[in-house]
Amino acid sequence: MSDRRRRTNDNTTDFFLNFIKEEKKKSSEVEEHKKEIIQKRNQTMGFVARVVNTANRILDHMLSSTRSLKLLSLMLTLFLFFSFTGDSLSSTSSGRIIRNVEVNIEGLEEGYSISGVPETVSIGLIGPAININATRISTNYSVYIDLSGMTSGTHTVPIKTKNFSTSLSVWILPETATVTIEEKRTTTFDIKYQLLNTEDLNDEYDVKVTNLSDDTAEVNAGTSQLNRINYLQIAIDAKRKTNDFTQECNVIAYDANGDPVECSIDPKTVTAEVSIEPYKKTVAIKPEFTGKVKKGYKMTGYKLSPTTVTLYGKRTEISNISSVSCEVDISDLNHTKTISSIPLTIDSHVTRASTKSIDVTVTIDKK
After folding, report:
1. Where does 95-183 sit in CATH, by number?
2. Residue of higher predicted confidence among 134 and 253
3. Dihedral over alpha carbons 112, 141, 91, 6 (to 10 degrees)
4. Class of domain 280-366 as given by CATH
5. Topology of the domain covering 185-278
6. For the segment 280-317, what is each residue's pLDDT rounded down to a tens digit?
7. Buried-state track 67-80, b at ≥16 Cβ within 10 A, e below 16
């Protein structure tokens, strides 16, 4: 059992030696901890030996009565408990690395922005296992930088910790951060939108954004952040939508590469109104004139009513249609005339049209 504790302590020490060597380069402090570990281990083993010797001397006397046997059982229970757990509860040989700990910002004056703060850091802990485990479970600790009294400019500031047990040795990587503090200013940007998951809709339907509650937003940030911003955008998710819908969307700033830029945006959200309709396309009507007007006359103009037609159908089948024709017979006309209900020639892939016929007024004058 002592060999097992010794191997555990050695492994823990090696673990933190590597951590300090690679991440903190503080070998001298690790050596101090190693000395403490060896000293405590020797003290524990000496204590165990004394307890065993004492137990052997009094064992014969304790076997003579039921009460003595119960007392012996209690002593053995306590001995086994501390043999297995006492070292891990009280030894400083335990350790843990906590990664991806968020860095908080404190003391930044209102009206200023900051950049260069690492999002997360790694923390190395050495101390009693019970305190390390309690720290990991509670998460009451925090890592922060204090910018109290600092104004515009570049500063190298220490990364600090608080609410860790005083029995723990704490290391942070990195230990410092080089930050830039800038005075904020406000700029207005147009808000773009992106429709997501429209492929889930049948191609007979069309999705359109009919209204945004705001089409511009104000960005309040430092000069360097504002210079990074290329556009503001919201994402509208049309997944599983079959009817018109309204959706509240977050406004996000992006740089030229499409990466988000952290900044203050007002408003933070925009309400988008979206329509889902059968796919349609409006095209021009082009008349084709047949026949000849009466001798001595000529056609000098014409007027269509209506001039366009809206076609409905599958996007893949009607998107290439650019116009619809109709045949107008002007045979023997000798005066201006309106010809009614002229049928349109409509492609067979069109499922519906806003009109199937039109009126054409033909202007006829003498030569």
Report:
1. 2.170.120.30
2. 253
3. -70
4. mainly beta
5. RNA Polymerase Alpha Subunit; Chain A, domain 2 (2.170.120)
6. 899 999 999 999 999 999 999 999 999 999 999 988 89
7. eeeeeeeeeeeeee
